[in-house]
Amino acid sequence: MNFVLNLRHRGVRIHTPEDRRLTLDDQSESCTTREGTQFSGREKVKQQKLKWVTLVFALGAIMMLGACKKKPAPPPPPPPPPPAAPTASLTANPNTIDKGQSTTLTWETTNASDTSIDTLGAVQPSGSQSVTPAQSTTYTLTAKGPGGSQTATARVTVNAPPPPPPTPSATEEELFSQNVKDISFDYDKSDIRPDQQSSLQADIQFFTQHPTVSFTIEGHCDERGSTEYNLALGDSRANAVRNALVQGGITADHVKTISYGKEKPFCSESNEACWQQNRRGHFVYGK
Amino acid sequence: MIRCKSGSLAGRKRLQRALIFILCIVVPLGAQDWIRTGTGLGVEKVRLAAPDFKASTQDPKNADLLKAFNETLWNDLENAGIFEMVSKSFYPLGPVGAPADVKFETWSTPPPNAAMLAFGNLGVSGNGMTVQGWLYDVKNVASPQVLGKQYQDAATNDAARLTAHKFADEIIFRLGGGIQGIAETKIYFVSSRSGYKEIWGMDYDGANQHQITRLGSISLSPRVSPDGSRIAFSSLNKGAWEILMYSLDLNRLVSFPRFGGTNISPSWSPDGTKLALSSSRSGDPELYIADSSGTNLKRITSFKGPDVSPVFNRKTGTQIAWVSGRTGLPEIYTAEADGTNVQQVTDQGYAVSPTWSPNGQFLVFSWMRHYGPGAPGAQDIYIMDIASKQWVQLTHDGGRNDFPCWSPDGRHIIFQSSRSGSEQIWTMLADGTGQKQLTSAGKNTQPNWSWK
Fold first, then answer.
1. Cβ contact (<8 Å) for B264 and A228?
2. CB contact under 8 A, A229 and B446
3. What is the number of other CB atoms lying within 10 angstroms of the CB of residue B358?
4. Alpha-carbon gap, residue A270 to A282, rounded angstroms
5. Residues of B whose CB is below 8 A from A263
6. Does A258 sit within 8 Å of B306, measured CB to CB?
7. Which chain B residues are within 8 Å of A228, Cβ to Cβ?
8. pTM
9. Is beta strand A280-285 parallel, antiparallel or unpaired with respect to A183-184?
10. Pick from A148, A147, A210, A143: which is nearest to A180 by CA?
11. Which one of A90, A195, A276, B307 is CB 3.0 to 4.6 Å from A107, fit for a cystine?
12. What's the pLDDT tens digit per position in B202-240?
């Protein structure tokens, strides 16, 4: 005999007779039948008697079930389950980058038939992609499926690039060092020699073309003579150069002067070549 | 002279000695480049014997303190320039620690043949030290004592040196025409030995050298005030040369106004109320006079070219000398302190760094007298009588010699010289003799002698 008692709404199944075992898979009840009831009918019983016994057992089992469940009536068949809602997740690693660097977006969806990321378009249901946003961007992952749609976002912050190197200033400083010429002086003199006029004109030309550049004129002297007199002499030299620039049309407001006398020589030997190097008005950029 | 109460020396003789000393400096010998003008010319220096002081107690610290005391006393007397020190090898045997030990005839006759005898004793007791010192006229047996002094101080080497200085100054005062000795005076100068040019100080004999400023910049031209309480100097400060003021009482800088431009070479009036300095605040280095607080700044020169290194006549306070480049090379000029009555003092070569003698009659300065293309000449120390413009050359031994400064007793001049290979501070008697190097570490320049 072979029959199946289908108590579907309770999830109860009774299997007979091959294994002569009746199993009650009902998770909501803790009936003794849970462990299974061993039936003891054997094949050697006469067929009619077997039939009767089986019926009795079956009825008994049904009665037991009924007593246990106390269900007044079998329920109607349930509606089919709704389609599962899609899920979506989106991450960016790293989520902060400097401009020009790239980051990796990683996403994962389930139950989606249509997956897209804005600015990237349709994408695989899950995957990863490297992106290089030019500015801070919020990526939105949209997963659409029969169960609805789901979005996830990931923010990528793009740091402003470091301020560009002061290219114009560097150029100005380079031009300064290339074009501005120190002014040499005779021993114990602070008037500008005729042979220094070409240097002076080059300086005037440069400062006319670069009216905003600020600089210091240092007055220097050679090692001979007194410390105090040389400081005064260096001051006169620096001022002589400054005055010559002013006469050449340079605005003197942002030109500083300082005397170093013989305190900071360029050259430390005791000969005329060295002394001449130290007797000068020296231009220093940007002080 | 009147203050000398000792009856053992004739006042006339002391007056004569003082006059001769000054005359020796004045004696015009400008026609010759090299002349020795001894402080003792025409007069015998006092023959002075100074046997080592004797221990008066049994304390074990006596030996060290006696050594410091005896060395200092001897050097002070020898440095004074007015004594002929009797060599110790001539001394009679036996220590002399008290008047009872003095056997007059053994000192007053050859070989010592001393006129004067300085002697005494030193004893440590606990933490204190007692020194007794006498000065005897050994040829006046009836009334030999010229001086008798007792000193008490802590039992330290520094105190022993200071006591020796004090006793030496007493002797020098009595035998040197009533002029205060210099053994307790100080020298201020610029030293590079810390890695920066800072202001340093030391005793007059080169002992006790110590750093005063710690500015980490370039500091120059220290000038101590007449009362010894402050040092004015110039320093590269916040990108400009400004005058700074250091209080030796407070051991720190005190406020002083910034003038703008290059401000250098401050110097004090003898009453300590005014400062003269050079400032380029107007665009050209000119001389100014301000109150010692820096207020009431008044300009007193107006010639194009550097005007720098002003110094008040330290006797009168009404006259200044300074260096001006108004004719090209730097020369020395004098004027009244208000800038009137300008007189050119030197008219050749390269003359810088004037300072006055204490009596206000002489200038000492640094001069490259034979200056010219191809003949840079030597830079030496000269004295000039300001009234007659007669001069005497004091250094001849090579190197660059600069920044002379007179001692308060007028007998010594301190200066910087490169003759030993680097700039160092040297001292000499005002006649050019007895030249001695006082510093050796780093470069040491621009010495300035305290006023007392």
1. yes
2. no
3. 18
4. 20
5. 197, 218, 236
6. no
7. 220-221, 264-265, 278, 308-309, 323, 352-353
8. 0.72
9. antiparallel
10. A210
11. A90
12. 999 999 999 999 999 999 999 999 999 999 999 999 889
